Amino acid sequence: MNTKTDIKSSGTFFDTITKVGNALESVVSIPVFILSIAMTITVLLGVFCRYIIRFPLGWTEELSRYLMIWMALLSVALCIWRHEHIGVTLIIKKVPLNIAKLIILFSNVLIFYFLYILAKYGFIMANKGKYQISSSLSTTMKWWLMAVPVSAVVCMIFLACKILLDIKRKNVEELLMSEEVIDAVKREENLDI
């Protein structure tokens, strides 16, 4: 199953944007995968030590919480690129394509501005976190709090690529859904049931 966004375009500009998005998706997928494995191992270790050998490890709960935050926030960026966020599309599907594109552009610009604010103040918050120490891990909170601005910046890059690629999209379904979903719907529509 191919999760890469595939825009068929004749221009090299759109090809480059697609390649940048796909490359960043590949790069971000690796830490998300590693973080999910690390979080699972940490939780299982904590449960094993607490309930099986009756010697609880105090740091497993806190570490798994911070790993989950990093994993979840980086996953938000992947969902932006893959068109996997939930959205209400009833009205957009009823209007002409150009109006739908404007509505989606306006929505994406608002989201981009929110992500900018999140990144700006997230870096400030994370910088102030260098004076806080986590209770169980005894590490500075700066690195754990960096999940917010880092993921916001990655989301902004994906969203910028998506906004540029939306210019080239030919119908509303391409604007709203991932290519995998579009292909699945097309396959279903051609089935004789």
Describe the fold and architecture:
This protein is an all-alpha fold. The protein has 7 helices and no strands. Residues 5-10 have low confidence and may be disordered. The two termini are 25 Å apart. It has helices at 12-52, 59-82, 97-128, 142-145, 147-166, 172-176, 179-189. Helix 2 runs parallel beside helix 5.
Question: Which properties best describe this structure?
Answer:
193 residues; mainly alpha; 7 helices; 71% helix
Apparent shape: elongated
DSSP helical segment count = 7
Over the alpha carbons, how many angstroms does the gyration radius reach? 21 Å
For the biggest sheet, the summary is: none
**Would you tell me the overall average pLDDT?**
87
Structural class comes to mainly alpha
Series of secondary-structure elements, N-terminal to C-terminal: HHHHHHH
| Unreliable stretches covering 5 or more consecutive residues | 5-10
Distance between the termini: 25 Å
Which range best describes the helical content: under 10%, 10-25%, 25-40%, 40-55%, 55-70% or over 70%?
over 70%
> What's the total number of strands?
0
| DSSP strand content | under 5%
How are the SSEs placed, and which strands pair?
Elements: H1 12-52, H2 59-82, H3 97-128, H4 142-145, H5 147-166, H6 172-176, H7 179-189
